[in-house]
Each structure stands twice: as C-alpha cells, then as structure tokens.
Amino acid sequence: MARIVRKYGGSSLREPEQIRQVARHIADRRWNGDEIVVVVSAMAATTDELLALARSLHPDPPRREMDMLLSTGERISCALLAMAIEAEGVAAVSYTGSQVGIITDTHHGEARIVDVRPTRLLQALGEGQVVVVAGFQGVSIDKEITTLGRGGSDATAIALAAAIKADRCELMKDVEGLFTADPKAVPDAEVIEVIDFESAVRLARGGAKALQSEAARLASDHRVPLAIGNSASDTIGTIVTDRPFDCGEVVGIARRDGLIRQQGTGHAPAILGWSRFVEQSGRWVLWRDAMPGEATSLSGITIVTSGRPVKGLHSAVVEALSSKEIPIQGIVESQEEIWLCLATQVAVRAEQVIHETIRKAGWLKVETAGVG
Q1: Interatomic CA distance for residues 353 and 368, integer angstroms
Q2: Distance in angstroms (rounded) separating the CA atoms of residues 203 and 302
Q3: How many Cα atoms sit within 13 Å of 63 on the Cβ side?
Q4: Full-model pTM
Q5: How confident is the model at residue 117 (pLDDT cuts 50, 70, 90)?
Q6: Do 8 and 147 sit in the same domain of this protein?
Q7: The domain that contains 342 carries what CATH number?
Q8: At 266, is the pLDDT very low, low, confident or very high (cuts 50, 70, 90)?
C-alpha cells in the first residue's frame, strides 16, 4: 500500500464525463489499497470567468476580495469530484485549503505556504476515505483566505505530500510531462523522462508550463518524490529524482512571456517574484514580470544546462538567431543556464530555432527511463 497525493488540473475536470473518468481512476487506486489525497484546480475557464466578472464591476478589484472570489472555483471542483468518487462506491470527503491546514503568508494573490497542519486530513485517511482538497488556496497567518497564484494547485499538492510523508506526489496534466521545450510551440520537443530537482526548478522558473515554479521549489526543498503525467491516459511521463542519471549537456529550454524591462543607476528596486538582473559600472538593467496594468512586449527564454558550461552553446545560439534575423535584447549567462530576452512577437520562433540548434548539435539527450 502506498500513500499518494495526486493533483488534477482544470482541463482534466472540464466536463462531468471527465470528472467521472478521474473518479474511476481514483477509485481503482483506492480499491488496490492505496491511500489517496486528490488536489484539484478549478474547472477549465472558471478562474478566467471569475476574473472577468470581477473586472466588470471594479476596474482594479481589491486583492483580498479577489482571493475570496477566486478560491470558490477550486471548491466547486473538489465537491463535485468527491461526489463522483462516492458514486463509484468509494468513501470520499472534500476540504478547502484552510480545512486541511494550509497556512500562508499575507500576500493576497501570490501567497506562499509557510506551514501545513494536516491533522484533519490524516484523520480522514485513517478512516479509509479519499480526501479531495481544493488547491490554489489557504488561510494566512492573519486568518484571511489567500490564493497561491497561477498554477498554485501544484504547490498545494507538493506541500501536502511533504507534510503527510507521501510516497509520491503525482501532478496530472493535459500533457505527458515536462518537455525539452513547449510542445505547443516546438513540435519535435521530447518528454524529459528523468530530471533532477534543481534542473526542474530552473525550467519551472524559466516558464515551463507543466510545473509551477513555487511548486518546484517546494519539491526540491523537501525532496518530495515527484511525477508528472497525463490525466487522460493516466500515465506518468516525467520523474523528478535525486538519483544520478545520464542526460545531455542541455536539459531543456523554457519560455516566459509577459516581461518588462527597467534600467537605471544606483541600487535596483526590490522586486518580488521572477527577475533577471545585470549591473555594471553603476548602471543596472532589470527584467521582471509585469505588474497588473503595465504594458508587456518582452519574453525570456531560459536554456537550462546540466550544471556545467557548454562549450560553444552561447555562440551557436546567438548565430542561429542572427541568421533568422531574430534580435536579442538582453542575455544573462551562468554555469547552469543561459537566459535571453526577446520581443514577444518573435519569442515562439526563437524557441523553435534554439531547440533545433541544440538538438542538431547533440547537446540534448533525453534518458529513457520507462516510467510508464
């Protein structure tokens, strides 16, 4: 018997029949003896619909009230899935994030989990129930409802897995796993079957769609055994692990849209969230996520290496982009990655060119793990 935390995204819960399919998968696991905690996102498009409704009433809705509103989407999903699991003949109970002890800081809209107190969850598991938890939300240290930002249900699942010492956390998506590039932009992108925690964090921070960056950080910090798979086929594509494995000199690339550029002199401003920073001779340039209302026209592409410099990579990428007349607006390089800033309108084409260049040079190698 294993203790599993399994997360389902909103695209997996779009229609009643999809909810029934998920319920059947969960019921089968429970009948096989596993203890199951399910974390769910809001049904597809629900969050966007709630955002639009709020903005039709207020041009800049208060962040506290937005958290109260947006947290309802996941509550709908968890109640419906618990009902569907019960219909399969398996006892289930639904809980909000606060009911299972997800404690966060006080940053509405982008809260971070600071503690998990899973007493009620463990009691329900001990009674043989499947526990269905509303992801993306918690309660702050000030006892306010908070949300964890886009993709926050991944963070909920991993934090719960760490707290209850789960044997594995499984993030079930509408894709097969983590890819060497965005599969919607790069048709020949491959599934990364095995990846280390640190590389997964860098890909997630760079914008990889299959894993939220805060969730990746939590998994790395707590060394939570992690898998990413496809909800429709109920198969696992990527394993995130501590064990040594044979990978290429480049692990993969990721694209992050919606950036803004600042420059100035003296001390750079303190920026929360994602940023890239270069300072030289008293001047600085900062690329960061745009705040609400700020115009965005930039994207960033992160090339994640296997932890050591790759000879010739920098020049090969620059030359390939230049040959396609794709201008680079900024570049930051470290031992673990190369990051490039480009105009958003050319970013997808740049991602395709970079991936093709890396693959043809033989720097990209995906280990076959047979994760199934």
Answers
A1: 25
A2: 7
A3: 12
A4: 0.91
A5: very high
A6: yes
A7: 3.30.2130.10
A8: confident
